[in-house]
Each structure stands twice: as C-alpha cells, then as structure tokens.
Amino acid sequence: MSPEQLDKWRVIPRLLVTLYGFMCWNTFEWFIAQPDPTISQTTFATAIWGAAAAWFGFYVNSGGRE
Length: 66
Hints:
This protein has helices spanning 3-9, 11-32, 39-60. The longest helix is centred in the N-terminal third of the chain and has 22 residues, at 11-32. The protein is an all-alpha fold. The mean pLDDT is 87.
C-alpha cells in the first residue's frame, strides 16, 4: 500500500475518529453508571463529549485540497 493510497482513503483520520467514538461511548456508559455524579465527573464527561465536535471538525476538514 502506497502512502498516496493511505492519504486517498484517509485511513488515519478515520481510525482516529473511530477510536474517539469508542472513547465517547465508554465515557457515556461510565457516567450513566454513576449513582450520583459529582460536579467533577460531570465536567469530565462534558469535556470528553465537547471535544468530539472538534475531532469531527478536524476529520471533515482533513480531506484533500483540489
């Protein structure tokens, strides 16, 4: 597989977005399992999910420039 094919298929950005999606889901499951979440736990979960928008923006804008 050539570097050009990797770049064309956007393997690395797709892999990173997929891994971040798993992290978001695990954070969601962890947060829902808390009987009485504290402010710190709520802030942590919100930061993880808020950063998901930035990751998605990086993914969308990482396409090739023609």
